[in-house]
Design brief:
The protein is mainly alpha-helical. It contains five helices and no strands. It starts with a helix and ends with a helix.
Amino acid sequence: MATNTQLVDLLHQLEAQLQQHELWQQTMPSPQALQSVEPFAIDTLHPHEWLQWVFIARMRALVESNQPLPRGFSIEPYFAEVWKHEPQYAELLVTIRTVDLLCK
């Protein structure tokens, strides 16, 4: 249960950071965009959209329904690559890396 509590805190932190950088959106992407089968929905969503509408939403849903969390994933390398010329997102990368480590 401690992992779930830590994860909820990290997801809140990630949301706050996305809001701070004006990357948090009020309008959900189209259902078609969310149904992409590509990793990170790279063909239909921007990286921050995937974080908000897919990753954060799904992780919260798993925690709220007491479902097992996925293990062994590593999403930080993707975001490090797409934001490599965006130093202002460094704190987001730290939070994402912390989520990766928590769900190791």
